[in-house]
Amino acid sequence: xxxxxxxxxxxxxxxxxxxxxxxxxxxxxxxxxxxxxxxxxxxxxxxxxxxxxxxxxxxxxxxxxxxxxxxxxxxxxxxxxxxxxxxxxxxxxxxxxxxxxxxxxxxxxxxxxxxxxxxxxxxxxxxxxxxxxxxxxxxxxxxxxxxxxxxxxxxxxxxxxxxxxxxxxxxxxxxxxxxxxxxxxxxxxxxxxxxxxxxxxxxxxxxxxxxxxxxxxxxxxxxxxxxxxxxxxxxxxxxxxxxxxxxxxxxxxxxxxxxxxxxxxxxxxx
Length: 270
Ligand SMILES: [Zn+2]
Ligand SMILES: [Zn+2]
Hints:
The chain has helices spanning 18-27, 52-72, 91-100, 122-126, 130-149, 167-176, 178-190, 213-222, 242-251, and strands at 3-7, 32-35, 77-85, 105-109, 112-113, 116-117, 155-156, 194-198, 226-229, 256-261, 264-269.
């Protein structure tokens, strides 16, 4: 089965409409297609190219379009999801977002440490000392534990996104900090979450799958269930490299993939 649980549209910062993404998904043979547009973020959490206003303005329309496809097209399974930004100091805001609409599942996107969108600009990382980078890697996995403990989420997205602009440094660090990463993934597992394996990293400066091999070893050891995703933002990236992701997971002995329908986890053979 081809399952892509994490995709975006032009209602966020993607470049293809809901219907274009649906058609592209059909074309590559997706059996399950999850629409997981970002949540709007509160003021003060900003990227350089901020899409908050555009997303807020069109969010209702986005929901209607996904719902419409869900009703009319039963040849594949269409799911409505939310990539909800994990913002440690905004629990009320996140709860409200998660509960506002009947989402099939909620994806945890950790893109911010406090108010810093750490995956926004390479320049932020280039000026950091090694020790400062290490501090941010630790903070990332510590906040992942807090995220999991809220029980708001079903999937932890791109679980080593923090490596995006400093992969060499991260690669060394993670080998010496397996315990912290393991605590974070265990917290996810204990709160009934899955770990996402994503091809988005292949298209980013880190140039490798999220997560790295060290995390894959931990994931296998603790037997956290996994999901697969492209995090595609346009018709050319939806479903991208899914077979490569499956082969990567099989190397570690994974035999199942998962998805959530109406918040219930379902499994399919890999
Ligand atoms: Zn994300
Ligand atoms: Zn995403």
